Amino acid sequence: MKLISIRKMKKRINVPANVKMGRICAIWLFCIALQAVSIPILAQSAKITLRLKNVTVEEVLTSIENQTEYRFLYNKDIVDVSRIVSISVKNELMTLVLDKLFKGEGVSYTIEKRQIVLNKVSSQQQDNKVTGKVVDESGETLPGVTVMIEGVTQGTITGIDGNYQLQVPEGSTLKFTSIGYTTYTQKITRPMTLNVTMKEDSKQLDEVVVVGYGTQKKINLTGAVSTIDVEKELDSRPLTNLSMALSGMSAGVQTLQLSGKPNSDMATIRIRGVGTLNNSNPLVLVDGMELSFNDINPNDVASISILKDAASCAIYGNRGANGVIMITTKEGKKGKTSVNYSGKFSLNKPSNLIQLVSNSADYFELMNESARNIGQSDIFSQNTINEWREAEKNPNELTESGYPNYVAYPNTDWYKELFQNKIMSEHTISVVGASDNVNYNFSGSFLDNPGLVQNTGLRKYYIRSNITVKVKDWLQIGNRSHGYHTDQDRNEVDAFTGGIHGQKLPPDIYPEYDGKLGLPEAVEEDPTSSNPLHLLASSGGSFKYEQLNTSMFADATILKDFVYHVEFDYMRYRHDADWLSKQIGRYSFRRGKLVEQPTTLENMSKAVYSEESKRWRFVQTLDWTRSFGKHDLGALVGYEAIRNWGFNTDMAKQGAADASLTDLSTYTELSNITGTTWENTSRSFFGRLTYAYKSRYLFEVNARYDGSSRFAPESRWGFFPSFSGGWRVSEESFMQGSPFDNLKIRLSWGKLGNNSIGDYEWQATYSGSNYIFGDKLTSGLAQTVIANQKLRWESVTQTNIGLDFAILNNRLVGEFDIYNKVTDGILYRPGVYATMGNKTPARQNYAEVTNKGVEFTLNWNDRVDEWSYSFSGNFSYNKNLVSKFKGALKKRLGV
Asked: Rounded to two decimals, what is the model's pTM?
């Protein structure tokens, strides 16, 4: 039974087609008659506003009816009202909207009174009705596939059974798209049934993740590894330090930025809690080289992999106990050489500042009230309070000292005076390109961060060069080099933010007037109260930092299945600092005189500090992969050697010859000189074995044998293994027809080590010490640290259970992990009796820390027409406990 759909007063009336022929003929005669009638003036003036996206034509017509007095009359078998369209108009004539809606569809409309009849018109270019079904490669139906006519916003989506139907103009091209599948197109020249088999997107199936000493397909991972596409996620953020970008990007990764001071704004990062009482920082590797986040230009980063469980970190042994963050930098892109510039400007301003009491009279009264509350007498007299109240009434009146009332009787808000809004800028130029044999990426950046407090700004310059050359089909060589130079102003802002100076900021100090710096004006005020501007101006200096890193490598394919990789890295770091005091006093504007005299020449001082450190790393690996039918095997063996060494020198002199002379030689008396050297080395052997059956059952074993000079020879070596497995349940035959596009269960266990202690702590060490010889104080050497040759590695064992899933054609993707991490034998210094004198106790293995937690990540990815969008969120819970300290933890009743 066919139905004719008629709209009237917002109600649809479905009239059977087998009604009396007279009624049908009457309707069609009425429609034909309407075609000869011109559009009434009322229709010409009707205006509507629509903002509809991916809706049916029928829904558009309903929206027009809701905004006008018109009702539509049409036959569904003749006019396709199920077609998907998007339309956006504002206050536009209804007739123009209808013209747009049916353009190229062969539909005409006639208007009579308040009825609009839709009909089909003949045309040489007829629309072709295309129907069909969309399935995947296994024959399973695919609902939700977008079917669009290329070049226009008309289309539909497949139903739950994978079927679709669409009117397509002759010669147009249909495009089928779905997340996780490659796009399919087909030109339409006639009415047809078009059944489509969508192929999985190999780019997504073959998506690789950077892991220890190589890469793996993400779909075959058995460890807890999260990835961040930096170019996609962070390109629009004005970052001064890459560590700030990790906040909220991965479950189980906590970031805390403790300072906004330029060059001190690196966030503290913890992966799955605090794992030790020593250094809990994760290992940060940039293209395999161990660096810190301060060494990295955020503009050079392409992707980040975060290894969280012991299974994925075990191949790094003693260095991976706190997790590993692997950063990959950008490489060249095949095509013509491109020169790119990017510039970022941002307004930096302080946030969440505490509101200080800035009215001095109110401050005096509050201080008096606090004194009375603890049984003491008032601090400020009523006469002092009254003087400030009277001065407030006429702030510009001159006092006897010749200064205005607002200067002589100040009401200072110190946070407004100290912090200033500043413009930060960053500029980057890169040259990128690649050919069949050469891949290159050269970049340079300049960062100007003036800081929020005066004389704290920095200027940082980055350079990077990544180049790879294919010498033969079986051999490629390359070099990655990068470095930076930093110039930073220096003052005593740290003393203000972290000491007593920041706690004593009364409002009765005027910051600065006519080149003079103020001090407390109330006679009862503590004279040691701070003027932060005086603190910042009374000393000066600079910091300079330089670092150069270079890595040379080669990859050789041997006997088809073997790849030999050899690499040598070298790093040189240099830090120079100088500090000097200045002659600046403090002035009382109320009394009109200099009260606190400038530092005398005899007490002026200057200090210089120099530090240099170097590191080299040599690594070689042999990687083998082979597929035997349904079996995939992989193996990797490697050797790594690392050496770190350096020195520092710290010197200070006192007694300036002249305040304008700042060379160290112009100071007369040596007040301090110290210097130290250090060195540590390590050697490691490591390996990995992977096996997959039908890409369904996954197994992996990692192991590392580490030796470190930080331990005595008899306990220098440690063995750190891990085991992990995965089951891709979605690949089982009994899961066919399930809603899961991917369902994988992961299980892992591993053991790691930690050597985050000093370089010589197993030995008894000596340092300078003064002693009495005769009646004189004499300099000498003394044993100050007790030896412990039985020190052993901290050990970290971790168990992880994970679940990965994807549904709705990979639109909704999630990960869930639960873990238990135990760090045993933590190296810590116990307390000793005072009878030991100045001896520092030896470290011992006697503490334990546990971390138990869960992590959950959910991502939604979808596409509307040519636009793609995504949402992501993550949740983590971690219980961190010192479970053993000087023995097992004992809980007392009621505690």
From this structure: 0.74
